[in-house]
């Protein structure tokens, strides 16, 4: 029987209930600049579920069937004659626009729709597949804050608030902020997760942690107490009062209109700045690839220096479609999970 590939796809636009696992012929390389990757893990981001829902089809072309997955990790099993940076057996991780949640992936290194980096030694494939999107998002936000606060000495040593300590982006951003910029970090978590934060992120990564289910976090932090807010969950309006004059709020979610911000936070410092990077980082795929190409070395360095720990809350084998759908619903709704949801492609059958 011919070798086969299995892929997670949405044959029609809709929520995760429409997802299926498609079986097709295993691809082969047809160009000297291509490599064939045997994918061992792929993670699901909110961006994947938004595209599959069809909500963006008026703004961007999303062909059907839609192939899910952006982040992946795997092993190169075939290399084109013109490829010099990779060899058979190399373990790689990165981005691919045309559906990384599959067992075999042909990547053309001459095209901008995929970027590969070698997996740092000691990092499991499941962990590697969880990192590209969230690491880029975190690094871009923190570097922008560092630049914005340059006249105040940059981000180093500043007090920052990043909600959702065990969220996909928040968990990585908090670690980088603490270990690279030595920030005083404030975050939030649900009652159940409060006791888990140090275990996942490391003791001392979060200096002050609030239970958002039992307390008004913004009031507890206080007005004008932080230099930088990195809004990872779309509640910038709630957090603006925390910021000192001259401070910054960056959101990866869509910001409310200025009138709403004014109504929600009438006492917010008037000289603070609010910015949204969500479109440029997660929805602008081309820019995401360029960013990964520039930052993957930095991510690998942080991993090798134990300054980032991958946070993977749940995994599922590709053959367990019911569990995949369940967890994709959680990703789409932004509810309840710890870190990233990763599909184990090595367990396909």
Automatic annotation (TrEMBL):
Residues 14-343 form the Enoyl reductase (ER) domain. One of its GO terms (molecular function) is oxidoreductase activity. CDD domains: MDR_like_2. InterPro entries: ADH-like_N, ER, GroES-like_sf, NAD(P)-bd_dom_sf, YIM1/Zinc_Alcohol_DH_Fams. SMART domains: PKS_ER. It comes from the Eukaryota. This is Enoyl reductase (ER) domain-containing protein.
């Amino acid at each position: 029987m011919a070798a086969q590939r299995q892929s997670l796809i949405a044959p029609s636009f809709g929520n995760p209930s429409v997802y299926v696992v498609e079986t097709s012929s295993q691809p082969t390389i047809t160009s000297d600049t291509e490599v064939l990757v045997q994918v061992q893990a792929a993670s699901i981001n909110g961006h994947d579920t938004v595209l599959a829902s069809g909500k963006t089809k008026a703004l961007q072309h999303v062909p059907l069937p839609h192939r899910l997955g952006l982040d992946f990790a795997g092993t190169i099993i075939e290399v084109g004659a013109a490829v010099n940076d990779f060899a058979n057996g190399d373990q790689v991780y990165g981005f691919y626009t045309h559906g990384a949640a599959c067992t075999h992936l042909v990547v053309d290194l001459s095209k901008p729709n995929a970027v590969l980096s070698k997996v740092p030694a000691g990092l499991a494939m499941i962990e590697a597949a969880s990192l590209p999107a969230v690491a880029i998002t975190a690094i871009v936000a923190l570097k922008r804050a560092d630049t914005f606060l340059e006249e105040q000495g940059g981000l180093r040593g500043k007090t920052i608030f990043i909600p959702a300590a065990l969220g996909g982006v928040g968990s990585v951003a908090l670690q980088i902020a603490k270990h690279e910029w030595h920030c005083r970090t404030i975050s939030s978590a649900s009652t159940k997760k409060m006791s888990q934060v140090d275990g996942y992120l490391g003791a001392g990564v979060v200096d002050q942690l609030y239970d958002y289910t039992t307390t008004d976090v913004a009031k507890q932090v206080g007005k004008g107490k932080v230099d930088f807010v990195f809004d990872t969950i779309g509640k910038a309006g709630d957090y603006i009062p925390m910021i000192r004059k001259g401070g910054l709020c960056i959101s990866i979610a869509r910001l409310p209109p200025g009138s709403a911000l004014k109504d929600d936070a009438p006492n917010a410092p008037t000289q603070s700045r609010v910015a949204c990077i969500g479109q440029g980082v997660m929805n602008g795929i081309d820019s995401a690839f360029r960013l990964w190409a520039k930052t993957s070395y930095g991510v690998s360095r942080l991993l090798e220096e134990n300054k980032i720990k991958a946070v993977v809350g749940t995994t599922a084998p590709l053959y367990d479609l019911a569990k995949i759908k369940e967890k994709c619903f959680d990703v789409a709704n932004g509810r309840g999970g710890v870190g990233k949801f990763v599909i184990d492609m090595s367990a396909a059958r």
